[in-house]
Amino acid sequence: xxxxxxxxxxxxxxxxxxxxxxxxxxxxxxxxxxxxxxxxxxxxxxxxxxxxxxxxxxxxxxxxxxxxxxxxxxxxxxxxxxxxxxxxxxxxxxxxxxxxxxxxxxxxxxxxxxxxxxxxxxxxxxxxxxxxxxxxxx
Length: 138
Prior knowledge:
Blueprint: E1 4-9, H1 25-41, H2 45-51, E2 57-64, E3 73-83, E4 87-96, E5 102-112, H3 123-126, H4 128-136
């Protein structure tokens, strides 16, 4: 199973008045993890889009277990939760780096495979090479 691991440092602009990373940043950090995950498969988002394959978000879930503050180092772990011919569900964990790498957030994003007109497609039928890469990552 492929698990992407990327590190990010919480920037001052990402914090609220209390110095805590604002909840609106976590979907952005999920996207950083997702982009890295796709890249680790051997293809980039821009390459997929040039081929006419798009992956719009249709659902996002986020559960907050803790918090991060300015200048904290966090690790974003990303893996496939479910892959079908029409959808991709990714699972994320965000850990605050430190002595024990504390889990502060977990979540999921659900995406649908579409063509450039944003019409749903069967990825195995239209892009079997990319489907095979994803299937190997399970």
